[in-house]
Amino acid sequence: MTRxxxxxxxxxxxxxxxxxxxxxxxxxxxxxxxxxxxxxxSQINGCAFCLDMHSKDARAAGETEQRLxxxxxxxxxxxxxxxxxxxxxxxxxxxxLPSHESVSDALYERLHQHFDDAAVIDLTLLVGLIxxxxxxxxxxxxxxxxxxxxxx
Length: 152
Prior knowledge:
With 152 residues, the protein is mostly helical. It is 61% helix and 0% strand. It has 7 helices and no strands.
């Protein structure tokens, strides 16, 4: 069965592209942190296209291979700052939503130790955005492995 081509319907996705650009332009989130969040959510969701894209973009922006390789086990290494760890925990809970009790007060307080309200809003929008992209790419089975950095 042939699935929908995202490229043929890319105009319909421009609000998503614009939101991503706006989040980054506001500068509330460090660019490397944003790349880690995009990667981690895509790992959880199993989106090959997004993993390909965001790993290449992260490397092009100076992220180390070691941090990308160990991202799925971030709790078991000291390669990530406390702020990054808080953001990754938050992103995981928002992506998995194991219950309506997700994002405990303790996690929220931990996040607020490192990020102000504007950054928390942008982090939440970024997680929602990548989850939408993951679902779109998984639904239409966009193939990973062909992305070139700075080509989007």
